[in-house]
Each structure stands twice: as C-alpha cells, then as structure tokens.
Write a structure and sequence with these properties.
Largest sheet: 4 strands, parallel
Low-confidence stretches: 147-162
Shape: globular
Radius of gyration: 18 Å
Strand order of the largest sheet: 1-2-3-4
Strand content: 5-15%
Number of helices: 6
Order of helices and strands: EHEHEHEHHH
Number of strands: 4
Helix content: 25-40%
Mean pLDDT: 79
C-alpha cells in the first residue's frame, strides 16, 4: 500500500508505473490519499478542499489503483487536554464528504492517522491504520536536522524501547489485508 498519494498528477504517475510493473497482472495497487490537515508547510499532502476531486480522479482515471482511504500526519505534540485532535477530526469529516459525494461505502474508506506519540487517540477516534515505527525502532536520524544527534541502530539500543513498545501495543490486534 502507498499512503502518500497527494495529487492527481502523482496518482497518474503511480498508476502508469504500476501498470508497467504488473504487466498482464490484474492486482491493483492499494493507495491512500494524503491530506495536509494541519496546513503546515513542512508536511506533504494535498489541500483538504481538493480531497473529493482527487479521489474522483483516482476512481475514474487510474485503473491500476485501488483507492483504500485517506491519510494524514497530524500536528506533532498536540495537547489532548484541548480536546480531540483537530487534524484527526478533519480527516474524519473528509472521509464522510468523500463517501457522500462519490457514493462510497463508509466502511470501505480506511483512515491512516496517528503515529508513535498519538496512535492511541487516533484509534479512539476511528483510525484503521497507524504508523508506530519510532515506538518500535526508536527515533529516526534526520541528516539535515539542526538537532542531529545519532540514533543507535536497533540492535545496539537497550531492550527498554522494545519493552515500552510491547507494553503500548499489547492491546492492539494486527490483521493482514
């Protein structure tokens, strides 16, 4: 699954590439449309108002792709004492808008939202997919980051990270699609 399709142009490119790769195969590539719900310049994703038209384009023009749902990366460090995460709420409302406008079954449109720091809240409000790599593997090393401090490889870190990850995720069930 590709969760980062953020324009009709990118959808067309992915569609063409998948058609060439799969040759005569019939399997369609599952994709999600990424929406920039926070409006942050540092985040990718299409503007929320383009969601319906982009999904409509994928459904009508990209025969090698299977639209699976919507994805967002919410604001980092949102304080839940201020109420539900507005980025997650926006994704929920855009799923409803997509389903209503394009007559798609609500249960067929997945939501990918929530990362290692907020996945529990994301699940509470309706996420079907979460991304928890940092919880499992530790923080990434971003080479161009001002706070570039080396992160030890997984095999060199203590077991604390793995134990913490296991504790956080013990109540989750993993299923294959």
């Amino acid at each position: 699954m590709v969760e980062t399709v953020d324009s009709a142009k990118l959808a067309d490119k992915v569609n063409g590439s998948w058609q060439r790769m799969r040759a005569a195969g019939t399997q369609r590539l599952n994709i999600m449309v990424q929406i920039n719900t926070s409006g942050e310049q540092s985040k990718h994703g299409l503007p929320p108002e383009e969601t319906v038209s982009t999904v409509k384009h994928i459904l009508s023009q990209c025969s090698a792709l299977n639209f699976s749902g919507l994805m967002t990366i919410g604001r980092y460090g949102y304080d839940l004492s201020d109420g539900p995460n507005p980025d997650f709420q926006m994704l929920l409302s855009h799923r409803q808008e997509v389903c209503d406008s394009l007559k798609l079954p609500f249960e067929n449109v997945e939501l990918s939202m929530g990362m290692s720091t907020d996945f529990e809240h994301a699940i509470e409000v309706g996420a079907t997919n979460v991304r928890v790599g940092s919880t499992i593997f530790g923080n990434r090393d971003y080479p161009n980051s001002a706070a570039n401090t080396p992160t030890p490889s997984p095999e060199k870190r203590s077991k604390v990270v793995s134990e913490e990850a296991a504790k956080k995720m013990e109540h989750l069930t993993v299923t294959e699609h």
